[in-house]
């Protein structure tokens, strides 16, 4: 049990102990009930991604308690202090840290970012082996410490690692979710919104399937302010080629690699993406997000237990259901191919 | 001139949906030339600059954010990383340039550029490196946004705020240093943590130099309206001056400790600067301990030092300095702090 404490040494029983008589309780007061509606989020891994997520959650006031876990105790304590020092500028949030899972007990949401970072040029699938053995060590104690938690996986390759986390945690499939293509879809919506000079919130566009090279852009379902894009183009007699659509999709997939190539990693966008998912879950928003879920039985995906991104309604209990979009035959085939890509790699893992 | 790059696969060379997507209504006139667009520029996209930019973005404080850095790749990467979050945020225009072209017409310019404080290096040692940098950076910034407020974060912040004031030609109410705003937050956190209390109920200022000679105003600390020192006396809780100094020292050490543990500080200064940005741009008229031209206050008369005093901030920058009562000891410490800063300033020859 290795908790990291920030309490001042100069204030307290060994120093200046103001606390002993500062507040006087009123008569007839009872101690607080053991079951409080405290919202607790744990973030595993305090690298660039983990800290961008933790800090965004803190700024957006989504939790009463944030617990941080990492193998590196110095880095961990430094990050915890850096957040605590902002106390005067934020609503009161308890921030704790431990190198083991002890500070995560009783979490409502556990966000796993631990794992090796994707290097420039490295495909997400190459990270896999390194991260699977790490998960075998960290996932079981996390679910044991928070048996009612929703678990969100961010580490890459996210689809397979969400499957792995599901198997290792013993949690029901509705409570294990991967951040999936939530961010890819945001990049997609940004590109279209930027071109149309419109707010990205007005662009409804999903990228589904693998969070990676075989993801599927659902062009047939893209609409802007209620106007389906492809039928708009047909009505306006604006010619377009399949190749052009594929180029736009390719630009989205390349988006992450481009940022990694330029600044060494991505952090801010994934921070906002995961914080957005955290809000939907913890505030029971019942919104639809493209996230990595157990896809078996949907859209003709039947050959095995594969996790990949589908448009999913999320709420306090995690995954409420998957929406029934109409896919073109081409999109359906691409999605099934995406599923097979993932299943091939999964079967080699032997979990 | 190196601005943002929109997608080329969408647009005249690719799929040009925009040409007929929206139809204007009849009898429209173009938008007025003076829009109330709030624009913040952040100079330097290191850990501090990006923590500030990202917090400002999350807190929705600006309509436009411009980023500037010498490193073109890093700059573009950071810009894209913020833009990619468009679906999760209110629409904010994010631009970037390695020169100052993207900063034109800013309401607030936040300068974080400069060498990072290395483990064990005191803030004053950074000085010479950063003065030369400011000579290149501040004049064009001021020329591009002649009405802006300049907020200096780079260390050593007090001297560099003075330098920025001289180089910009701005009136002194429009040049502010982040100063001891964060030190005071650390101080308030320590006390609040001990009392199991919300830090916002702790009124406590650290003033003077943002550094080793800062001054903790113990005589003015109050919690929920209860002045701490008189509370201790009434409760007959004995305390020594030494103990108070230890607590203050822990605050000063706070930054160095974080730097030693994680290599730098970022999040706390990000929140601190965003809090100042809000007070200024939303004309909050709230009091913050920030680095201002201290000449004429508390017997500080020799020269033009910038150091932190409790200052009221609003849309025009510094509205005034509050008249906090200092003990004789605190006043002496403050004047010592001013002397420390002035000594350095005179060596600069600006």
UniProtKB/TrEMBL annotation, chain A:
InterPro entries, sorted: L-lactate/malate_DH (IPR001557), L-lactate_DH (IPR011304), L-lactate_DH_AS (IPR018177), Lactate/malate_DH_C (IPR022383), Lactate/malate_DH_N (IPR001236), Lactate_DH/Glyco_Ohase_4_C (IPR015955), NAD(P)-bd_dom_sf (IPR036291)
UniProt EC number: 1.1.1.27
Cited Gene3D superfamilies: Lactate dehydrogenase/glycoside hydrolase, family 4, C-terminal (3.90.110.10), NAD(P)-binding Rossmann-like Domain (3.40.50.720)
Keyword NAD found: yes
Any single GO BP term: carboxylic acid metabolic process
Alphabetical list of SUPFAM superfamilies matching this protein: LDH C-terminal domain-like, NAD(P)-binding Rossmann-fold domains
Pathway info: Fermentation; pyruvate fermentation to lactate; (S)-lactate from pyruvate: step 1/1
Major enzyme class: oxidoreductase
Annotated NCBIfam families: L-LDH-NAD
PANTHER family: L-2-HYDROXYCARBOXYLATE DEHYDROGENASE (NAD(P)(+)), L-LACTATE DEHYDROGENASE
HAMAP family: Lactate_dehydrog
Protein family (similarity comment): Belongs to the LDH/MDH superfamily. LDH family.
Protein name: L-lactate dehydrogenase
Gene: LDHA
From TrEMBL, chain B:
Lactate/malate dehydrogenase C-terminal domain: residues covered: 180-342
Protein name: L-lactate dehydrogenase
Keyword Nucleus annotated: no
Domain of life: Eukaryota
Catalytic site: 210 (proton acceptor)
Keyword entries, A-Z: NAD, Oxidoreductase
Family note: Belongs to the LDH/MDH superfamily. LDH family.
PANTHER family: L-2-HYDROXYCARBOXYLATE DEHYDROGENASE (NAD(P)(+)), L-LACTATE DEHYDROGENASE
This enzyme's EC code(s): 1.1.1.27
A single GO molecular function term of this UniProt record: L-lactate dehydrogenase (NAD+) activity
Stretch forming the signal peptide: none
Binding, NAD(+): 44-49, 69, 130, 153-155
Pathway in which the depicted protein is active: Fermentation; pyruvate fermentation to lactate; (S)-lactate from pyruvate: step 1/1
Gene Ontology CC entries for this record: cytoplasm
């Amino acid at each position: 049990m290795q908790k990291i404490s920030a309490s001042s040494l100069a204030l307290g029983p060994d120093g200046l102990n103001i606390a002993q008589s500062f507040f006087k309780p009123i008569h007839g007061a009872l101690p607080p009930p053991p079951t409080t509606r405290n919202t607790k989020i744990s973030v595993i891994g305090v690298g660039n991604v983990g800290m961008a997520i933790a800090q965004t959650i803190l700024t957006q006031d989504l939790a009463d308690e944030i617990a941080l876990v990492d193998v590196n105790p110095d880095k961990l304590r430094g990050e915890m202090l850096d957040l605590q020092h902002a106390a005067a500028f934020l609503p009161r949030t308890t921030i704790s840290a431990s190198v083991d899972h002890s500070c995560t007990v009783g979490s409502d949401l556990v966000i796993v970012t631990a794992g090796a970072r994707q290097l420039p040029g490295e495909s997400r699938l190459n990270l896999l082996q390194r991260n699977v053995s790490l998960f075998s060590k960290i996932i079981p104690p996390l679910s044991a410490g928070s048996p009612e938690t929703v678990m969100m996986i961010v580490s890459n390759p996210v689809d397979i690692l969400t499957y792995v986390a599901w198997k290792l945690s013993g949690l029901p499939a509705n409570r294990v979710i991967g951040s999936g293509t939530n961010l890819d879809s945001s990049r997609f919506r940004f590109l279209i919104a930027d071109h149309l000079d419109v707010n990205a919130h007005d662009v409804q566009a999903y990228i589904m399937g693998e969070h990676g090279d075989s993801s599927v852009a659902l062009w047939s379902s893209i609409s802007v302010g209620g106007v389906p894009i492809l039928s708009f183009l047909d009505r306006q007699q604006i010619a377009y080629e399949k190749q052009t659509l594929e180029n736009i999709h390719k630009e989205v997939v390349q988006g992450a690699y481009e940022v990694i190539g330029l600044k060494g990693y991505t952090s801010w966008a994934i921070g906002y993406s995961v914080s957005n998912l955290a809000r939907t879950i913890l505030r029971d928003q019942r919104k639809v997000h493209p996230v990595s879920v157990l896809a078996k039985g949907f859209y003709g995906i039947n050959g095995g237990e594969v996790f990949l991104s589908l448009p999913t309604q999320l709420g306090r209990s995690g995954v409420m259901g998957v929406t029934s979009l109409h896919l073109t035959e081409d999109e359906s085939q691409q999605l099934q191919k995406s599923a097979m890509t993932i299943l091939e790699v999964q079967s080699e893992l032997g979990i | 001139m190196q601005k943002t790059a929109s997608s080329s696969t969408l647009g005249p060379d690719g799929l040009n949906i925009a040409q007929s997507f929206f139809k204007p209504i009849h009898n429209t006139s173009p938008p007025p030339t003076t829009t109330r667009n709030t624009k913040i520029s952040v100079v330097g996209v290191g850990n501090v600059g990006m923590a500030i930019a990202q917090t400002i973005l999350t807190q929705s404080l600006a309509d436009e954010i411009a980023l500037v850095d010498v490193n073109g790749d890093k700059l573009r990467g950071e810009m894209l990383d913020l833009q990619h979050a468009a679906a999760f945020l209110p629409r904010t225009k994010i631009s970037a340039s390695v020169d100052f072209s993207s900063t034109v017409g800013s309401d607030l310019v936040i300068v974080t550029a400069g060498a990072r404080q290395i483990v064990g290096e005191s803030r004053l040692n950074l000085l010479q490196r950063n003065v030369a940098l400011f000579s290149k950076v501040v004049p064009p910034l001021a020329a591009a946004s002649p009405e802006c407020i300049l907020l200096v974060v780079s260390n050593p912040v007090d001297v560099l705020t003075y330098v920025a004031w001289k180089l910009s030609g701005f009136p002194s109410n429009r040049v502010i240093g982040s100063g001891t705003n964060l030190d005071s937050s650390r101080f308030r956190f320590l006390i609040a943590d001990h009392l199991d209390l919300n830090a916002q109920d702790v009124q406590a200022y650290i003033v003077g130099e943002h550094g080793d000679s800062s001054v903790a105003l113990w005589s003015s600390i109050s919690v929920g309206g209860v002045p701490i020192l008189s509370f201790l006396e009434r409760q007959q809780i004995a305390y020594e001056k030494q103990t108070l100094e230890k607590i203050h020292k822990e605050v000063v050490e706070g930054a160095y400790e974080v730097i030693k543990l994680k290599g730098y500080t970022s999040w706390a200064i990000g929140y601190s600067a965003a809090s100042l940005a809000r007070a200024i741009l939303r004309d909050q008229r709230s009091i913050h301990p920030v680095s201002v031209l201290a000449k004429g206050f508390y017997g500080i008369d020799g020269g033009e030092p910038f150091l932190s005093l409790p200052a009221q901030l609003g849309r025009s920058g510094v509205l005034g300095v509050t008249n906090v009562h200092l003990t004789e000891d605190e006043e002496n410490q403050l004047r010592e702090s001013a002397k420390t800063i002035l000594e350095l300033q005179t060596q600069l020859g600006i």
